[in-house]
Amino acid sequence: MGRAARLSRVPASVASPRKTLSVLAAVLAAVLALVTVVYSAPALAAEVTGKLLVSTYRLAPKESPGAFQWEIENGVKEVAPDRVDARRELTVVLVGEGESAFPERMEVAFSGGGLLPSTIVARPGATLLFLNQDEIAHELYAVGDKSIAAEATSPRGRRSVTVKDAGVIELRDQLLPHLSGFIHVIPNAIAVATPDASGQYSFPEIKPGKYTLKVLHGKNEIASQEVEVGAKALAIDPIALTAPSDK
Amino acid sequence: MLLSRFWYFVLALAAAFAVGAALLSQAVVNNRSDANLEESLLRDRVVLEAMLRLEARARLDRIGFITVDGDLGSLLRQARDVTDEKKLRELNANARPVLHKQVARMVEASGVTDAEKRKELEPDIAFALDASGRILAQLGPMEVNPPGASLATFPLARRALQGYVRDDVWVYDRRVYRMAGRPIIAGGDYVGAILHGYRFDKGIAQKLAGNLGNATVVFFQGSNVLTSHVATDSKGGAVPQAAEVVTSAPKVLEGQNGLVALPSGGRAIFAPILGDAALQGVGYAIARPRFALTSPQQVFDSVSDADVNALPFPLLGGGVVLATLLGLLFMYLERDRHMKSLTQKTAEIVSGDRDRLIVTEWRGAYRKLADQINQAIDKWVEKAAEAAPSLRRKADLQEILGHTPEASATPFFGFASEAEPASGAVAKPPAPLPAPAAPPPPRAPVVPTTPNVMPPPTIRSQAAAPAAPQAPQLVSNGGGDEDAHWREVYDQYITTRKQCGEPIDNLTFEKFGVTLRKTRDQLVEKHGAAQVRFSVQIKEGKAALKAQPVK
Q1: What's the whole-model pTM score?
Q2: pLDDT tens track for A189-207
Q3: Contact A178/B276, CB-based, under 8 Å?
């Protein structure tokens, strides 16, 4: 009641403006709080997850018989079938209209004598940073594209490459003939995800809308389906992969 | 001369055939040598491929026991799901001595005691990989790899981890290795793989070249020689060197089946190596010298005694004898016979048995020679007649012939085909022929001092001075002598025209006499000659008469 006593001692002509200012301040605070709540509401960006059935994905032989003198089974235990290294070779991308969450700068590693990932998706103008995690040097170059010429990247060294035009760029290594990679430059790519060894993938925050989900392996698109993202998290049904040669 | 010319042609043809045969032999030998060289190099490549295949199999078998080794398998199994860097370092440190031990066991198991050969069996590089392709231990360069370093995408590693036994050729850290890989099984699972490799060293080149009959063998990458063995025995050809072989390598090795000519003259065959490194220009070449004959003489250098003994000597000797006899026969028919006759006739002139040569007895060059001898006799007679008295006395020609006019005053003339008057003849009414006369006087004796000069028969004209007493036999006095001389000339003229292929139709002695008379009169008037002598000669292939005024 002290406050009321103080107010009572204030003349009526003076107390009225103060009250008005207080009300205005309270209203302004309420509006700011509402705006903050509206714009930070999680319901406007949902996570999209899914799984690729990699165990059924059979690869066509990559090498010609002339690559060796001998390739025979060990005679002790049955050999394991060819399986795709999903983490290295497969990429899932969402394509559609709308605001892109695609990074302007992406990192790709030289690892195990190859690219990780070897199937890369980028938007035009994006910069790719190749980090050499191998103990040997690489000389990456693009086949038929002089903008990515062969250039040595020493162990633990790095090299940046900017992609410009939409399309597919094939990457090879002058020092390691088996190394192969592809950059898919997609203008309306919204988000990209790399599956884990079991084929699980996720896009953390995708705004509601209609998109096309594509699964890329090397230069090929091996699966594609339409997805509609809403306010809630979306779990896409498992996708069975079909080798390009089986199509 | 036709026969001898034909014979020369046959001889030239035989010589050309012999030279051509020698050149052809050289070409045949060279072609055969090239064909053998190509066949040899193609065979070399097949042999080399087979040897490389066997050598690869030996490398694969050499590490067979490691596949089921418990120590290494246990370590690889432990590393399977480890992601902690510290734990991985610990496993790496434990795996390295185990890998060393396995390599030592591998060398020991070969049974080789020679230290140098044992050294050759020690791999230049070796890896122990876990199931995801991470390097758990490495021997050779870069032994201390950071934890997590991987060979997972190398086809050899990937296939070995799947359970395959496989070889390959790598370019790893800019060095070329002959690799071999095997899976490692522990507890019934594939827990990793072991890979090992050898560089292309001098030993492998020597070993392969030795089995190829000492050819030059070169392993190369692009323009760099990895290793080579250069043949030592060239047997005459230039030994192909490794550098020239590499610089002659085609840009694309795949599908090379033809030979490549080397700057030194040798030939080489190229092929890519079987393995990943082929895409980086790693290949091999086998080269051999080319034995080429540079001259036909070298064909005979390689002839053996047996080859010589196998020749058909009777046939060759008979051919030589026959050819010689034929040549001698042709020489006799065309040269010796005529020379003998000519020599005999000229000897008769010398001996005084003959005044002149009868040119119609010979043909061709010998007839021309006889004619020239006759002309020479005539000129000598003329000169003798013109000589000074002292000379005349010496030659005694003036006494026989009187003065001989200049050569320019001795025109040639003849008769047209229709026996028209000769050119230059004066168209005067024909004078009566000289009256028939007695036979010509006997031939004058030869003057001993001028054995080579035989004066022709001389006839004095009607107005001529009395015959000189010194040569009554040569200068007849009276128309009978002239008529006989003209007849003799007429007969000789007709014969010569026939031989020269000229017509003699309507050429009667009467017409002939008219022309001689005119000519005689003109010369008598012009030179004041006492008599005129005629002779028949061949001028430019035609019969011609020559008038000789005698004072």
Answers
A1: 0.65
A2: 999 999 999 999 999 989 9
A3: yes
Q: Per-residue pLDDT tens for B170-211? A: 999 889 999 999 999 998 899 999 999 999 998 899 888 888
What the block records as the tokens of B433 is: 């022929």
Contact A67 B52 (CB under 8 A): no
| Partners of B193 in the β-ladder | B129, B183
Q: Where are the beta strands (DSSP E) in B251-318?
A: 260-261, 267-272, 282-288
Contact (CB, 8 A) for B489 and B435: no
Q: Are A125 and A149 in contact (CB under 8 A)?
A: no
Give dist(CA B49, CA B41) in Å, integer. Answer: 12
- A82: tokens are 């060819």
**Residue A26, SS3?**
helix
Cα distance between residue B185 and residue B67, in whole Å: 6
Q: Pick the residue with more confidence: B244 or A10?
A: B244
How confident is the prediction for chain B on average, in pLDDT?
81
What was the ipTM of the complex prediction? Answer: 0.80
| A chain contacts of residue B152, beta-carbon cutoff 8 Å | 85, 88, 111-114
Tokens of B213: 């009959």
Nearest chain B CA: its distance from A101 CA (Å):
31
pLDDT in tens, A126-142: 999 999 999 899 999 99
Residue B391 in tokens = 């000379």
- Best probe of the A interface among B80, B134, B153, B191, by most A CBs < 10 A, is B153
**Subunit contact A71:B60, Cβ cutoff 8 A:** no
- B140 φ/ψ sector (left φ>0, alpha ψ -120 to 50, else beta): left
- A79 in contact with B, Cβ within 8 Å: yes
Contacts 24+ apart (CB under 8 A), B376-380: B377/B349, B377/B452, B377/B453, B377/B454, B377/B455, B377/B456, B378/B456, B378/B535, B378/B546, B378/B548, B379/B407, B380/B450, B380/B452, B380/B453
The distance of B161 to chain A (nearest Cα, Å) reads 8
